[in-house]
Amino acid sequence: MPDQRSRNRPAGRRPTTGPDTTSSGGATIRYPIPSLSARAWAAVSTTNVRLNPGLIFDRFAPDWSGQATLKKDGLEAALRAAKRVDGSLLQAWNARWEACAQVVQAEPFPLKTDWRFIAGLGRKGALEVGFTFHRYGFPILPGSSVKGVTRARALITIAERVNDPNLSLGQLDEKLSPDGEKDSKERKLYEEWCKDQAEEVQKLANDFRSIFGTTAAAGRAIFLDAIPVTKPRLELDIMNPHYPKYYSGEEPPTDWQSPVPVYFLTVAAGTEFRFAVGWRRPLDAEGKRLRALTKEWLVAGLTELGAGAKTGAGYGYFVPPLQPAQPVTAAPQVAVASPTGQPAPAADSKLPAPASPTTPVPSEELIWRTGTIREYQPGSGRGRLVDDETGEELRFSREAIVNKGWSPGKKQKVRYSATQREGQTVVVMMQRG
Amino acid sequence: MFTAKSMLFIYVETPLHAGTGRGLGAVDLPIQRERTTGYPIVQASGLKGRLRAAARGRAKDSPTEQDQQQGWLSTKEFLAIFGPETAHASDYAGALSTGDARILLFPVRSLASVFAWVTSCDALARFLREAEMVGLKPGWPLPLAPGKDTALVNGTALLAGDSVVLEEFSFKPDTSQAAVVKAIGEWLAKNALPQTGYDYWKAALPTKLCILHEEAFRDFVLYGTEVQTHIKLDPDTKTVAGKMLWTTESLPVDSLLYVPLMAGPSRAHGVDLDGQAILQKVASLGLTRTQLGGDETTGQGIVALRFVNSNGDRPGSAATPGGKQ
Question: What is the pTM for the complete model shown?
Answer without folding.
Answer: 0.80
